Amino acid sequence: MSYETVLYEVSGHIATVTLNRPDRLNAITRQLQEDLFNALTAADKDDDVRVIILTGAGRGFCAGADMKGLDETSNRDWSDVPDEGWVKENCKDHDMEGVRIDFRKTNTYFPGISKPIIGAINGACVGLGFVLQLFCDIRFASETARFGTAFAQRGLIAEHGSSWMLPRLIGVSNALDLLYSARLINADEALRMGLVSRVIPADSFMDEVREYANWLATGVSPRSLKEMKREVFNALFQTLAEATDAANLDMARSFKTNDFKEGVAHFIEKRAANFTGS
After folding, report:
1. Residue 176 CA, distance from chain mean position
2. If pLDDT is split at 50, 70 and 90, which confidence band does 64 have?
3. How far is Cα 157 from Cα 150, in angstroms, rounded to an integer?
4. Do 113 and 44 touch, CB atoms closer than 8 A?
5. Contact 220, 20 (CB under 8 A)
6. Tens digits of per-residue pLDDT, 100-116?
7. CATH classification for the domain delimited by 6-217, as one of 3.40.50.2000, 3.90.226.10, 3.40.50.300, 3.40.50.150
8. SS3 assignment, position 113
């Protein structure tokens, strides 16, 4: 499976999706947005894939929107263009059956992918690239990674759901700090804020990311991963009572699965698990 601006590889139940415009620090274009969506949905539909890694080619994760496109946008006469018209043309909802509308927007759809997405932030992660990593399930940073919103320096706003997700990850005060100042932070500060889960030495970065992904792909139930992801992101919109009631139903359904039987059996028999996702 090949794409113009994204590399796609499947190995050992792990799909690795790599933003592949290294000469532009993987800056985002419409083609890249389309390729990325298609690659992630392909991984989601592939029964052999249990975990997805998202990273960038070369020395950066993603430098945000391509500046050539931003330059053209800034020099365009927008006086006669209705605001709603721009939104309709540029911010279309994705066609994702069974996914709540919140997670079908142009750049907020990662939670609508049923399998875990690990953001492997290998370098610069700025602007729209910063937004993309917010919606990954887990974020690991290379020690060389740098993070920044950049929006205020471009005269823009907190784009594409970042005003919703960022404070949920790092708190309101930290979120407003990064949004207001547009300052760059290093991987260690991102870890202290809770923006990333782990900082990894550059020379072993992808090896350690893959080691973690391999554990998710082989050591735990793929059905559990899917259900937990759905539970957690749905719970962002639920009361405690609603989330608990939904979890109770999910628990009852789990008792009927092969993975539940295997989960108990492999522990009692003191052997490696052989989960099937059924």
Report:
1. 21
2. confident
3. 9
4. yes
5. no
6. 778 777 788 899 999 99
7. 3.90.226.10
8. coil
